Each structure stands twice: as structure tokens, then as C-alpha cells.
Amino acid sequence: MSKRILVIGAGFAGMWSALASARLLDEVGRTDIEIVLVAPEAELHVRPRLYEQNPGGMKAPLQEIFKAVGIRFVQGYVERIDVANQQVEVSSAAETSPVVLGFDRLVLAAGSRLFKPQISGLDEHAFNVDQVASAATLEAHIESLATRPASIARNTVVVAGGGFTGIETAAEMPARLREVLGDDAQVNVIIVERAGEIGPDLGAGPRPVIIQALTELGVKWKLGSGVAAVDAAGVTLESGERIEASTVIWTAGARASKLTAQVPAERDGFGRLHVDNYLKVRGLETVYATGDVAYAAVDDAGNYAMMSCQHAMNLGRSAGHNVAADLVGDKQIPYSQPKYVTCLDLGPWGAVYTEGWEREVKLVGAEAKALKTKINTEWIYPPSADRAEALASADPRRIVVA
């Protein structure tokens, strides 16, 4: 009787998990194990680029790659995970009732979503760049500003959250606004950050570069007070200060997919499942977690994977290899990703590239921007649909730093 590896999610971690499983099964000559990937669409949404223009084009088709390596794609949404009975329920527009899929091993790679706390008006009035559709909605809104009467609010963008996504988004906004409103428009881009420093999670290393870039771009920031309320005309801060703005972009934080709550295992404060060195969920024999849903150690120094494509791609390769090795009795490879880098886009100013968990600055300005462009347009995209190339690229020993 054939067995089944079931992968949930077609993001960076899910795609690479499925490809890595296919690579190992091909290597050991096993044709009796089916790989099934469930996702809403057979395409990779390139989320790290959604702060850029044309977010609707930030997609990469996966169906031909899946066909080339023998991965069966099932379109739909996983509604229920039943670990005890080793099955999931999948809903789709094509079926009137959920489809039940059994599994011998499950790889949960359902990713993360933007965290939205209970703030008055946040859902109704704030935009975000978390998903392709929401980023496209923001772009359409910005383009529509040209049809509105001139006002301070029309010309003002508030970016809530001064972390990685918030900084990258804010750095793009002055040029985007002037493109729509005219080169001589007086535009205001303001980052609101609850912490006492801009880029609190990025550390002190790149902060002087970030401050220089934002200052030269004309971006301002307000620290030490978060957003208390959002409405159609702007935001009110926790300090009581009011900012009139027609555009409010929420970027403050992410949480693992809610599907992790259906897995009977320990989770961290972001909803990520605790996994062992092979990315198997601790306490379970048939479930692996990877990407943004995995709380995984990257080294022996106490560092853990970030919710980023940099870690998701290699987490996916490791999970896919290990889940297949688990089924066929082959050697598993412990996940390890000790080299950590960041490359923060700073819009027309350039970028800043750092290495190590202390984020030592290595490149700035145009040189770092060239690297960021290469990452965003080449390194994070799927391989070609050539079978040999796709399988070779999924080797977990091929660590990619991006």
C-alpha cells in the first residue's frame, strides 16, 4: 500500500518541503510514496516584495514545477487537522463538502499572517502589505489620492510599526506619493513606533544608516507611543496626539497560522510549534512543522529562526528531506542555519546589509541595494520546471542566505 506525505502551504517553506521530499524519494528510488501539497493556489506569493510597486505581479507559478517532480497539488483551504486520525479536511469552491485527505506524515507549512490587535478602526480603515490582495488594495488607494482635493491628510501616510516591514514600506512612500501627486507635492510620511528606537528588533548596528536614509528621504518618526485608534481621517496615538492622514498602513507584527492551534503540542508566544532538530513537532510522531509555524533553533548559541523567507526556504528543505527520510528509513539531517544576514531596503536611498545576530553592517547605499535587488528578483524565486534542476536545488545541504 502506498503512503502519503501531506504538505500544507505553498509558500517558501511549503514549496521547498515538497520539492525536498521529492528529491530524497527520487534519490532512493521510492515510487510508492505520494507527495500531496494543499494550498489555495499553485503559486508562490513573494511576500518579501509586497512593499514594492505592482504587488499584484509578485507571484510565481508552481504547477509546472510540481508536475515535473511528481507532486500532486490539491487546491483548497485546510479547515481541520486531525492528528490522532492522521487526516485533514479541505474545503474548496469546487466541492460542496470538505474533502478528507489522510496522511502518513504531515508537514505544516501554513505560514503567518499580520497580527491585528483590538484597535478601534484598524480593520476598517488601515491598509497593509501582508498579502498580495491587501498590498494591491493599498496601491490602488494611493493611485486614487490624485482624485482627491489637496490637503495635509491626503498628502500624509502613517506607517504603524517601525520594524523591518515598516521601514521598507515607509522608505518607498515619499517617491510613490510624488509619482501620484506631482514632483512638487509636499508629502508627509510618518512612522509610529511604540518602542523608544526606530527598528527596535534590528539592533543598534544598522540604526545610524537607517536614520540617515530615512532623514534624507524625508521620512519622520514618532517613538514611544503606539496607535490607539484609526479612522477615515487619520490616527490617534496612545499619547493622545492626533495625525491627520488619508493613508494608514499597519505593519506591526505577525503570528503563525491559526492551524497550529489544532496541533496538540507546545507553541511559543507567536503561535509557532516547538520542533526538534529534525523539525518534527515535539511529542508527535507524524507531524513536522516548518517555516513561520516552527519555533526552530538555528544554532547551538540560543538563536531561533525568524519569520522570514531567509529561514523559511532552508527550514522547508530540511523538513521535506527529514519527513521523507522518516518514512523510508533513510538518514535525517539536523536543521542548522548559523549564518544570519539582513538586507533592509531603504527605497531610492539604497539599502543596508548586515551579517550575524549582532547585525554588523557590511554594505550600505547603492552597493547594498544591488544585493537586495538580486535577492528580491532572483534568489528567492522558485527553480525552473526542469526536473533535475528543481530536485538538485532542494538539497537541504544547499544553504541559501537571502
Give a brief rundown of this model:
By secondary structure, this protein is of the alpha/beta class. It is 28% helix and 26% strand. It folds into two domains: 3-114 and 254-339 and 385-393, FAD/NAD(P)-binding domain (3-Layer(bba) Sandwich); 122-250, 3-Layer(bba) Sandwich (FAD/NAD(P)-binding domain), CATH 3.50.50.60.
| Adjacency order of strands in the biggest sheet | 5-2-1-9-20
Number of domains: 2
Which term fits the overall shape?
Answer: globular
CATH topology of the largest domain: FAD/NAD(P)-binding domain
CATH superfamily of the largest domain: FAD/NAD(P)-binding domain
Give the terminus-to-terminus CA distance. 40 Å
What percent of residues are in strands? 25-35%
Name of the top-level CATH class of the largest domain? Alpha Beta
> If you average the pLDDT, what whole number results?
96
- Provide the gyration radius in Å: 22 Å
**Estimated structural class:** alpha/beta
Biggest β-sheet description: 5 strands, parallel
- State the total count of DSSP E strands: 24
